Please model this.
Amino acid sequence: MAAGRTPPAVAAMEGYDAGGGFADIADPAESSADHIPVKRLTIGSWHLLAKYDEHVLLSFYWAERKLVWEVLHLGVVRKMEVDFEDLVQATLTSGGAEGEPDKLAIELHRPPRFFKEHPSSAVSGGAQDVNYVYTTDFTNGQASTENRHVLLFDRGAITTEHTKMMSYSGIRLVHEGAGGADAKGGSGQMQRQGLLGRSGGGVHAMSAHLRQPPTSSPRLDAIILQDQLKREMRERQARYMGICPVRERVYANVLDELTACVGADAPKRGALLRRVTAEARMTIDAYRTVFEASIEFGSRKLTQARETKGSLAEQIEELEGGIGALQKEVSHLEALCESLEHREQQKELSYETRNPELIALEEEQAQLTSLLEVLRLSKPKPDAKG
Model:
């Protein structure tokens, strides 16, 4: 076989064209998600058989490069999520006999992330906003310890387009069953082209002996929940200090899950933890109520002070106007008093100052009086005979 050429079977399976590229495949970054119904999901000793449509779904989110197992249970969606970079290999086995389902075995580098649907909240337009929060392993610990997940589908559920998109997205896909030899022969080429499709980025491997032992315990669930909490805080950009509603919601959800884990292993401890949690929340609500009441009281007092200040300002302006008028009247009365006092002083001065003519007449009268006295003394006395 000439170097640099792809076998026809592998080219048909992988979707290569004659020039060495992918033909008739949309860009995964612009592709919508694909949801494939699953008939049976097996992870270690945990099995789940689909009882109705959309009970179990395998979803490929090409743009986000995520692989998701979605399980609908009692109206609540729980899901496991892994990145394409965490996939070691996907082995597709086509059903040989009539009616035999197709099988897809997926091997993972690390355990998936676990989510559950949070109660929806109404948004603008009457729509419902669905949120997912981190939760613990709902497969009895099997998904956290087992790296092989086996899924059964209806025959033909995984189409050629799906396999082409998987190969184009860098997922190592191996075919078994019908045409398996050709597919295995080209698996190395598929892996190399998958790595090139990821711009030369290597797959970070995690050795199998580094995985958790195949046991499940509340301690293991707590460790996994702690890792998911750190990831959730980082992805939602929650603040670790100060008031942060995002951190409050995340911590509340984690505390609920932790309480459920503790209650499953020790019911009395779980009940005590729920009681302490309720008491703490009641205390926080009481403080919040006091804080809100104080804020409302302060706002009400501030509004009243503003209204009172406005009326007092008008009253002060009126009083200042009255004071100005009274000051003018006082100035006028003071000027009038001063003029009257001046007149009185002038009158007193006029009374004290005597007329020169009157003084001359009084002096002349005094001289005449004294002269008359002299004349009376000098007049001869008459004789008694005569």
In short: Confidence is low (pLDDT under 50) at residues 1-22, 179-215.
